[in-house]
């Protein structure tokens, strides 16, 4: 059974639970995104997606999740209420590029976007 | 129509471009126009060539062209490659299928795909683990590269044969070589839907390598896939060539991190050919 873990004011979602060799990358991302959006909707907590156990996560995985958060809660929620954790350097880099692409896209449609935005990456021990 | 391939097709940019030029007649053949590729006198074929030959063959079958490929039978190593890569089985489905777990096999057989799944890169990783000690960072980069290309094919190419992947571990050089070929719309035509100002295939390739340009065919498209792929190969000291339409982009090691040029023929689709060191300390 898939479960989220609650740490104080954070809800942790283990992405690995949604990954199977025969499953589409985008399909997995949609399942994770469903869970993230539900968790964000149900509380004011920060939602953290753990990438522990995943190797070489592609940009489309992050794009699906970030896109769903933006569609439901606006781009600010990506900055303030979402994190990824247990990520390798490469995963962080790929995530960072997706994160920045969403901020740029948001700027392009006229919303404000301040300089110095930091990606919602939480660095933890591997 | 008879096309003879007498030269050795190593996994180098120039050899692959030479093969694409040779295949130009085949690529331009119309429905029901039969063709035969005579490769009997060739003495070397690699996974990059195998993916190209397979894509030509499978598309030819779809078009009713009655394609024929005459594979070399010597030297013995090349004959084995034709077996392990699945080239023999492709042209003769009644023949023995390739066994990727065979002790002598250093090849991931030709794989046709229409989805981008997590397991897409498993065959390549298994192969490498059987033959070498695979570091975590190399595995990660390799998986990322394959996922990004596969997702690109599925999301954008509209390829009638899907994507075709073939890979090989070159033990003497401690390198893995991977090719993914599609017979779809090509990068220029795909991007033009969103960017009518795209001038040509060179401009299109330049934009996808830079990143941030996408046809937005699906919600998950942000135009980062090829850019992430390119950067990962570059960071690991690998080699890459991307052929699409009448242009190709490549890294020329120690000379030019990104060179994009026109080619004197048109490849009907996109081919991504890359090689990574399996031991980053080498």
Question: Strands, helices and their partners?
Answer:
The complex is a heterodimer of chains A (126) and B (282).
Chain A: E1 5-7, E2 10-14, H1 25-42, E3 46-50, H2 59-73, H3 75-80, E4 82-85, H4 89-108
Chain B: E1 2-4, H1 13-22, H2 24-28, E2 36-38, H3 47-62, E3 68-70, H4 76-84, H5 87-91, E4 107-113, H6 122-131, H7 136-157, E5 163-170, E6 175-182, H8 187-192, H9 201-210, H10 225-235, E7 239-252, E8 256-277
Parallel strand pairs in B: 1-2, 2-3
Antiparallel strand pairs in B: 4-5, 5-6, 6-8, 7-8
Helix pairs in contact in B: 7-10
Describe this structure in a few short sentences.
Chain A is built from four helices and four strands, in the order ββαβααβα. Chain A is α/β, with parallel strands linked by helices. The longest helix of chain A is centred in the last third of the chain and has 20 residues, at 89-108.
Explain what the structure shows.
The complex is a heterodimer of chains A (126) and B (282). Chain A has 126 residues and is an alpha/beta fold. Chain A has 4 helices and 4 strands. Chain A has helices at 25-42, 59-73, 75-80, 89-108; strands at residues 5-7, 10-14, 46-50, 82-85. Chain A has a 4-stranded mixed sheet with strand order 1-2-3-4. In chain A, strand 1 (5-7) and strand 2 form a beta hairpin. In chain A, 45% of the residues are buried. The model of chain A is unreliable at 111-117 (pLDDT under 50). Chain B has 10 helices and 8 strands. In chain B, a hairpin with a 4-residue loop joins strand 5 and strand 6. Chain B has 282 residues and is α/β, with parallel strands linked by helices. In chain B, helix 7 runs antiparallel to helix 10. The mean pLDDT of chain B is 92. Helices cover 37% and strands 24% of the residues of chain B. At the A-B interface, helix 1, helix 2 and helix 4 of A face helix 7 and helix 10 of B.
